[in-house]
Structure formats: structure tokens, C-alpha cells
Amino acid sequence: MSKQKITVVIADDHPIVLLGVRELIERDDRFQVIGEATSSSELAGLLANVRPDILVTDYNMPENSIYGDGLKLIKYLVRSYPLMQILVLTMVSNNLILSRLYELGVAGVVQKSQLHAEIQRALDALSQKRRYKSPGFNKLTVVESSRQIDERLALLSLRELEILRLFVSGMSLRDIAINQNRSAKTISTQKVAAMRKLEVATDQELITYCLEANLFQ
């Protein structure tokens, strides 16, 4: 009698990534992919009909959806499906955000840049109901996070802080330039400089970092 397979659903807004992840997972006979989604709303609809053992989902799936993406989406998934193991694929490298994902209850996080090297190890851990943590991941305690945030914030100029505050509030760079009576190019340059000091690489990572760190609340 053959052993029952571990069921998997994959979600990513890039079809080529979906295909690649499916191929990597199905190389292992223990797993069976039973569904795919290319947006958070499509994923929510799929999970209403199938309940996989493991969900492999992209962290950043931007769309106009009530489920959102990033931490908002992960919070929804963990709360709604507590028995489902969630493996997050991400380009985010900021340890504050990665620590927050584990605190929310995900079973593992794999960097997309390390997908081929790590996904098999991650799936092995999840198949044994263990959490997976990348060898390069260093969890931050609340104290360490606060100290790290304070140290990075100290590097920012007052103008950079104000630009970040306005950007996180939802203003575009063009609107900020008008608000500050400066050129859009100058605003963009200072935003990039601020992101470098905070060690974040994308707008999504920047907004998540600022919100999770309660910088402007």
C-alpha cells in the first residue's frame, strides 16, 4: 500500500516561478502539487476548496485585493488556516522582517536567490513537521531589533526621515517633491540613500520595515 502523499499548493504572481517551483517539488515522490495561484485573491479562492498540507507562497504578490500581500497576506493565511504549514518565498533579506514572519507562525522562509539550494531542505523539514530556518538566518530579539533600528535611524538626515514619512503615508515621489518644493530627482536620490541606510532593497520592504518598526505611528 503506497504512502499518502503530502499535498502542496503554490502561489506566485510570476508564472515562470510557479513552473520552476512545481518542477522542484515534484522531483520528490513524497509531494503532490494540487493547486496553483497567481494572486492573493486567487489563492484565497483556491484554499476555500482545497486544504493542502503545505502552502508555498511568494511574499510579495502586489494586487488590489482585500487580502493584500506581504505581512498582511501572511497574517490572514496563518489566522485562517492554522494547521497548514506555510513556506514563504521571498527576495526580502531584512532580518527584522524575516523574524516577524517566524513570529507570525510560518513554517519556513526561503530566499528566492537560494531556491534551488534550499527548497529541498525546507520541504524535508516540513514533511517532518519541523520549522525550517535558513543557515544564514539570525533571529533578532525585540531588544536587538530596537537597537538595530535606532542605529540605522541615527544615520538618516531630517530630510530623509521626512521623505520616508510622506512616502509611507501613501504619497508618490512626485507629490512629495511638490510638497517639499524640490525636484523629483532630488527626492528620489534622498529616498534611495535612506533605503540604503536602513538596508532595505525594495519599496515593499521599506514600507514593511517602517510599519513593523512603528517609525511613524
Polypeptide structure, described:
By secondary structure, the chain is α/β, with parallel strands linked by helices. The protein has two domains: 6-127, Rossmann fold; 142-212, Arc Repressor Mutant, subunit A (Orthogonal Bundle). It has helices spanning 15-26, 40-47, 70-80, 95-104, 115-127, 142-153, 158-168, 173-180, 184-198, 203-212; strands at 6-11, 31-37, 54-58, 85-90, 108-111. Helix 8 (173-180) crosses helix 9 (184-198). The protein is elongated. The mean pLDDT is 86.
Describe what is shown at a glance:
Helices cover 51% and strands 13% of the residues.
Note poorly predicted spans.
none
Distance between the termini: 58 Å
How many domains in all? Answer: 2
CATH architecture of the largest domain: 3-Layer(aba) Sandwich
Largest sheet: 5 strands, parallel
Number of helices: 10
Would you give the CATH topology of the largest domain?
Answer: Rossmann fold
User: Quick one: how many beta strands?
Assistant: 5
Secondary structure category: alpha/beta
What's the CATH superfamily of the largest domain, by name? Response regulator
Please give the order of strands in the largest beta sheet: 2-1-3-4-5
